[in-house]
Each structure stands twice: as structure tokens, then as C-alpha cells.
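Priority: medium. Attachment 1 of 2:
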């Protein structure tokens, strides 16, 4: 099965700080790193690292061609990525000494994607292939509707949470992954607990408490692997990519959950987002050891 990901491509500007600054406070960072990021790019790289065939659909400014090169080198097909005159999206990421993060996001080219080209990319998909989308690009609902009309399976990362978009996409969704905050926002928006909405597959990630699955395969809890976090940026994206790869490959839900949890655990032990996503070989070795 192939996966077509309409997703963001960002430049992450990552600053290490002792604490998050208060209003009006000027704070000197101890380190700086520029790296590939964006929920979409992170998830595509996680999918490819897990062994899935993934086609990324998105946009970036050609002046930042190193982003295209890095994604391709990580195994992501870039055939449907558009060159855009808008600046490439970027995120200013602060990471504190506990490994927690704060993120300021500029969408840029991610909100200027040509949807005519996007929909033509779906002509290359086959029934029962998957599509993946998040809330960092334009055209999410149009993409979901077009994918559903083609008989494709839809995976949705409702982040950053936008009530109107999420509620419109939900009826088309086969797999939804949210964290606890997004699950609470979804409950408020829908007036129902996410577990009762009737999704085919629902995963709620809970950080150090692991993840819960509720769906047609039953109900499962996956404990988190115990690690010392260095940087939690992109951990949810790493989890999602590995889990969706397992689902697309026909793995048992319990197996997909375990590998996704292990991948996220390894990812947070290294600074960075996309650059820290581990290989399937390393994830399997980690599971064997733990």
C-alpha cells in the first residue's frame, strides 16, 4: 500500500533555553540548530523510516532546495512537491532543560499549495491506498473528499487543532490520532467523547503515559517506553508515521502500537524533529532490548 501525504514542509529554527521566557523577558539561548521540520515532513520521514512507500504532497520555496534533498535522502518520494514563490514555512522552536518545547509557526508556502496539482497526484493512487493530512496546509477538506471518492483510506492528524476543519474532516476519516489536549478540544467541539464518535480507528497519545487505541480491532493500551527525554519536538509525528506504516502494511494493531511507541521513545532521546526519527532497524533492536 502507498501513502499520499498532503503535509507541511518547514524550516525549524531550534533554540535551547534554560526556561521559557516570560512576557517582556529577553533570554539568551545556549544553542541553535536549523533543521527540516513541519508535521507533514516529519510524518513522511517517519513513514519512510518505518518502511512505507510515501509520496509527499506539499510546497516550499526553491531557494530552500536542501529541504527537498534531505527528504528524498530519507526515502520520501518528492514527485508531487511544488515549488512556490511564497517563503518556505518555518517554526521557531524553544526547547527547555526538561525537553519540553514551545513553537511559533509561520505557514508560508504550506498555505499556498495549488490544489489542482494536489488532486491530480491522487490519480496515481489505487483503491485501499492511504492518504494522510494534518492542519498545517490549505485544502485539507477538499483533499479528504477527493480521496474518499477514489476509495482511499484517510488518516488524519488533527493538529494544530482547528475546530471547523476537524469537524468537517471527521466524517471522512478512517484513522484519527490526537494527543490528550486535542482529544479534549474535539470532545468540546463535538459534544461527545472521541471514543464514542464511532471512528474505525482512534488513537489518543498520552506522552509518558503511553497511548490508547479504540476501534474495530478492540481496545488496547500501549505503555510508554522509559527513556530520558532530550527533546520532545516531533515525537507525536514520529509515532503517527510508524503507526500508520504498520496499519497500511496490515500489521496487528498491538504490533503497530508497540513499534510506534518505541520509535517515539528513541526519537525524544536525540535533539531535533525529522533529523531524530530512527530507522526501523534501530526501532526493532530497541524493542528487542526492552
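Attachment 2 of 2:
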Amino acid at each position: 500500500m502507498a501513502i499520499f501525504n498532503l503535509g507541511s514542509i518547514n524550516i525549524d529554527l531550534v533554540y535551547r533555553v534554560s526556561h521559557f521566557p516570560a512576557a517582556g523577558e529577553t533570554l539568551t539561548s545556549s544553542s541553535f540548530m536549523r533543521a527540516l521540520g513541519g508535521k507533514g515532513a516529519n510524518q513522511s520521514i517517519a513513514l519512510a523510516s518505518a518502511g512505507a512507500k510515501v509520496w509527499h504532497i506539499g510546497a516550499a520555496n526553491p531557494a530552500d532546495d536542501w529541504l527537498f534533498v534531505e527528504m528524498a535522502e530519507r526515502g520520501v518520494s518528492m514527485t508531487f512537491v511544488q515549488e512556490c514563490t511564497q517563503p518556505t514555512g518555518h517554526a521557531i522552536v524553544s526547547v527547555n532543560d526538561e525537553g519540553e518545547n514551545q513553537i511559533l509557526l509561520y505557514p508560508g508556502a504550506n498555505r499556498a499549495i495549488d490544489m489542482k496539482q494536489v488532486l491530480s497526484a491522487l490519480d496515481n493512487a489505487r483503491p485501499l491506498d492511504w492518504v494522510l493530512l494534518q492542519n498545517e496546509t490549505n485544502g485539507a477538506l477538499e483533499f479528504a473528499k477527493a480521496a474518499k471518492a477514489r476509495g482511499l483510506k484517510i488518516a488524519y492528524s488533527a493538529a494544530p487543532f482547528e475546530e471547523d476543519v476537524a469537524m468537517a474532516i471527521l466524517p471522512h476519516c478512517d484513522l484519527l490520532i490526537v494527543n490528550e489536549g486535542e482529544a479534549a478540544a474535539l470532545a468540546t467541539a463535538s459534544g461527545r467523547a472521541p471514543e464514542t464518535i464511532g471512528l474505525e480507528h482512534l488513537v489518543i497519545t498520552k506522552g509518558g503515559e503511553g497511548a490508547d487505541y479504540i476501534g474495530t480491532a478492540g481496545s488496547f493500551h500501549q505503555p510508554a517506553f522509559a527513556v530520558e527525554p532530550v527533546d520532545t519536538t516531533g515525537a507525536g509525528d514520529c509515532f503517527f508515521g510508524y503507526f500508520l506504516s504498520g496499519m497500511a502494511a496490515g500489521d496487528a494493531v498491538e504490533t503497530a502500537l508497540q513499534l510506534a511507541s518505541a520509535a517515539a521513545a528513541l526519537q525524544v532521546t536525540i535533539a531535533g524533529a525529522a533529523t531524530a526519527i530512527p530507522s526501523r532497524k534501530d526501532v526493532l533492536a530497541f524493542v528487542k532490548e526492552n
